[in-house]
Amino acid sequence: MNITILGSGFAALTAIKHARKHAPNAIITVIAPSEEFIYLPSLIWIPSGLRKASDLRINLHNFFNRTKVVFIEARVENVINGGRTVVTDQGEVENDGLIIATGGRFIKKLTGIEHAITPCEGIPAAEKIKQRLDGMFNGTIAIGFGGNPKEPSAMRGGPMFEFLFGIDNLLREQGRRHNFKLVFFNPAPEPGKRLGPKVPEHLVKMMEKRGIETHLGHKMVGFEKNLVKTEDGEFHADLILFMPGMTGPAWLPDSDLPKSEGGMIRADLQAKVEGYDNVYVAGDAGSFPGPDWQAKQAHAADIQAKVAAGNLIKSLKGQSDFEDIKHELICIVDTLKHGILIKRTEKGTTLLPPCRLMHYAKRFFEWLYLSQYK
Question: How many angstroms separate the CA atoms of 204 and 135, rounded?
């Protein structure tokens, strides 16, 4: 049994663990650009100095040795031959079963988007935010996010709320919040609604209480060096943080794999790529059926990866009792001081008020999660 897994992010690492668990004797090959994992959820703490780059960058060499996988440092260029061949910049790799977990990419089509920092692009972006904040004595900081209109789930709003409240608290701790104007902008009139119907009102009230201005419900037009432009007008900003919507990986448009309208790999409820045998997808690269509130997040990627790995092994063994993806959204929106626990399932939404314990719970989960890969 020869299994290939593409990627080294949340979905890929979970797929590796569960593939090895269910197929202890399989040959597992991992293809990724580097032998490291970046813990993206904690980028929010880099501007305050609570975390630094080395805390979030994990070398996976020991983990790969423990799980007995073959690592190939390469970039994926295509998947051909019905999924049995992965084309990379270092040659072709054959498989009996494939799990695609290469992640997605941000849509950088808005005019002037180079003037905005996209925080979740990685550690350099978060470090740039810290550098800019440290060098500012006053001014306007604009923070917002967009989406992919053809792939409603392909957005990352949670981290932007965290950067917003985290920067607000950081400036207060430094005794200079009064020198700054904070503006939150979003094309949706009720940002955060995927987290639950009552969440937008709760978050906006938090912003009002903290003196954070809002610019909501107006389609984005673009940016200039110190300007945020919407269909309802424009406003000045000395620092702009913006998370655009997401689409599939860079190699996907040239592939024959089935694509959703939003440019992601179409899969069924078992995480199987439509029309392909023994090819599965998990995480940001995939477009899955399900409720319209299921957003892209690490927790969802882990769930999809478990299902993908388990179902692939069952398929390779000739079994047919496949598992469905369980739709669930869990996050702690951190404010640097407190955390707001939000959980949404088919049964409804649980929203807890800001609590200092939840801030430490988020930090503990980070330690627990990373310890398994060191």
Answer: 28
What's the predicted TM-score (pTM) here?
0.94
DSSP lists the bridge partners of residue 315 as none
Whether residues 124 and 242 share a domain: the answer is yes
Residue 372 belongs to some domain of the structure? no
Residues 55, 112, single domain; the answer is no
Q: Classify residue 324 by its DSSP letter.
A: P
DSSP for 28-84 reads EEEEESSSEEE-GGGGGGTTTTSS-HHHHEEE-HHHHHHTTEEEEE--EEEEEGGGT
pLDDT level of residue 134 (50, 70, 90 thresholds): very high
293: left (phi over 0), alpha (psi -120 to 50) or beta: alpha
Residue 115 and residue 228 in one domain: yes
| DSSP 8-state symbol, 313 | H
Range 85-93 contact pairs with CB under 8 angstroms and sequence separation of 24 or more? 86/4, 86/6, 86/31, 88/31, 93/4, 93/29, 93/31
Residue 229 shares a structural domain with residue 261: no
User: What percent of the chain clears pLDDT 90, i.e. is strictly above it?
Assistant: 85
Token pair for residue 103? 């992640």
Quickly tell me which residue has 């950067």 as its tokens.
163
Per DSSP, 283 falls in state G
The tally of CA atoms less than 13 A away on the side-chain side of residue 131 is 8
Distance CA 141, CA 363 (A): 26
**pLDDT (0 to 100) of residue 371:** 95
> Got the DSSP string for 90-116?
TEEEE-SEEEE----EE---SBTGGGS
Residues with Cβ within 8 Å of residue 87, at least 6 apart in sequence: 76, 77, 78, 79, 80
Q: Using alpha carbons, list the distances in angstroms from residue 341 to 115, 191, 291, 355.
A: 32, 17, 20, 8
> Cα(42)–Cα(311) distance, rounded to whole angstroms?
31
pLDDT attached to residue 292: 80
Instruction: Measure the CA–CA gap between 358 and 83, rounded to whole angstroms.
Output: 43
